[in-house]
Amino acid sequence: MDLDPSLQDCKAATGLSSEKQMEIDTYQVKDRMKARCQEGNKTQSIYDRYVKAYKKWWDRDQFLRKNQNPNHEVIPAFPILAYKVTLFLDHEMSHPQYKWGSSDEFKEGTTVGKGVIKLAVSALESHRRANKHQY
C-alpha cells in the first residue's frame, strides 16, 4: 500500500500506536476508493460548492458577530456541527435564488427551494463524515 510520503515521515516522529497509525492509513485508502468511485460523477463538485459556500458564509457570519460584540469568540467553520448547519440553512432559506451562472446576483422575489436545502444538507453531512477523523 502506497502511503502519502508526508505521513510516512510523520510515523517515525509521532510515536502513534500501531493501531492508531493503521486507522490513519485506512482513511487514505477510503479517500482513494471514494475518488475512484466518483470519477466522472458531478456529485463531488456540487458538494464542494456547497461546502465552499458554507465556509464563506460562516467566516463572514463570525466576522460580523465579532464586530458587533468584541467579546465574541470566533468559532471555526470546521468541524461541521448541527448548530452550525442550522444557522447556515436559516441563511440559505432566507436569501433569494442566485441568477443562473452568478454567485453574487439574485433573482428578486424568489427564495431557494427545498431541493437546494436537501442538497446543502447532503453536501455538509458528506463532508462532515469524510473529515471527522481530523477533529
Can you walk me through this structure?
By secondary structure, the chain is mostly helical. It folds into two domains: 1-37; 42-134, no CATH class. 64% of the residues lie in helices and 0% in strands. The chain has helices at 5-14, 18-37, 43-68, 82-94, 114-131. The radius of gyration is 19 Å and the shape is flat. The mean pLDDT is 82.
| Overall radius of gyration | 19 Å
- Mean of residue pLDDT? 82
Mind describing the biggest β-sheet? Answer: none
Shape descriptor reads flat
Task: Please tally the β strands and state the result.
Answer: 0
Distance between the termini: 25 Å
Indicate how many domains the architecture comprises.
2
Q: What portion of residues is helical?
A: 55-70%
Q: Indicate the proportion of strand residues.
A: under 5%
Count the DSSP helices: 5
For this structure, the quaternary state is single chain
Contiguous low-pLDDT stretches (5 residues minimum) are: none
Counting helices, strands and paired strands, the structural category is mainly alpha
The helix-strand sequence is: HHHHH
What structural keywords apply?
5 helices; mainly alpha; 2 domains; flat
Short description:
The chain is mainly alpha-helical. Helices cover 64% and strands 0% of the residues. The mean pLDDT is 82.
List the helices and strands and how they pair.
Elements: H1 5-14, H2 18-37, H3 43-68, H4 82-94, H5 114-131
